[in-house]
Each structure stands twice: as C-alpha cells, then as structure tokens.
Write a structure and sequence with these properties.
Elements lengths: L1 H49 L15 H10 L7 E4 L5 H8 L4 E5 L2 H14 L5 E5 L12 E5 L5 H11 L5 E5 L10 E3 L6 E5 H19 L1
Parallel strand pairs: 1-2, 1-4, 2-3, 4-5
Antiparallel strand pairs: 5-7, 6-7
Length: about 220
Amino acid sequence: MSGALVNESNAAGPQEDCKAGSRRRSWGLVVTAGVGGTLVALYAVVTPFVTPALRKVCLPFVPATSTQIQNVLKMLENRSGSVVDIGSGDGRIVIEAAKRGFKAVGYELNPWLVWYSRYRAWRSGVHQNTKFYISDLWKVSFSQYTNVVVFGVPQMMPELEKKLAEELECNARIIACRFPFPCWIPDHTTGEGIDTVWAYDLKHSRGHETKSLEITSETQS
C-alpha cells in the first residue's frame, strides 16, 4: 500500500513541474506581449512629436499662454474674413477665434494634436466653424486667408516671410507670436517678453519692401 502511494507521489511530481513550467512560459509570453505593446504605443505617440525636429526647420509644440491668446485676439479686433493658425498645436487659437465669429482653420504636422484639436473644438461647440488639417506648412498655399497667425521660430521666419508675401492678398494681416519677421516693420505691437505679438498689414509691409529694394539699388549704383 505504501509503495503504491510512493509511486503515485513520484508520478505526480513531474506533472506538477510540467504545469508550473507551462504557467511560467504563459506569464512570460504575457509580459513580453505587454512590453512590446507598450513600446509600440510609445513609438506611435512620440514619433509625431520627434519627426518635426528632424525636418529642415524645427517647430516644436509649445502651448500658447492665455496672455498670448488675448494679445492675438486683440490684433483680430475689427477684422473680418477667415483666420488661419500656422502650426496650430492643440487648437486653442483657432477655437478662441471661432468663438468670436471667425471661420478659423489650423494647420499642424502632428496628427495627435490635430485630432485633439478637433475634439476640443467639438467640446467647445465651435466645430462647425473650425477645421484642422494635418499638413506641412511649406506645402500649403495660404492665399485664401485674410488673417494669418504664426507661432514660429527664428530659423523659419525669413523664408515664411517671403512665402506669405507672395501668396497673400494686400488686405491680409499677419500676426506673429514670440518672434517677429526679419524685414517687415510691424504696424501694431502688444505684450512683452514671450507674450509679445506683432501685427503686419501686408499692404504696408509690401511698400516697405519696395522702398528697401530701391535704397539697396541706389546704394549699389
């Protein structure tokens, strides 16, 4: 009798070891899958933020402060037509402009920020007056807009200045935040420090460009 019990115990031992090994392998697969899924999700989230930094001009996402927003809105007072925000981030400028009756559009390279902007516009009840596009600003024509808001960096401002001068109508107003344009003289300025906002009426800026070219030509001759 005792011999039979010993044999049964010895037989059960390998079976229990086999089951324990299977459980460990199962948990190992679960952990591996979890880690792999986390890395894939992290890559999907981080890549849109990192990719712009690998382009010719780095345009990082830095949310506009409440003071900056108010300064931009001040520059839009008594203005009509549409508003476009170049590098619209999480959409706060576009949404605030829409609340004041503008048809407002945002262009942003980061798809996550565009989707979040659309959600915020829906939550704010202005989704019918707003549009957000995933696009590279250098591949878009802004000729249809009369009010242009730019949150740029110094490296991009000279080239963007030329692009807007070529594309916009003479009644357009360009509002630059954080950094001014290098050649244009602002018609209006408000705020201080990082909250400074410069407004350029293109009809005056184009006249200034013409005079600058004439002076340069006379100097060279």
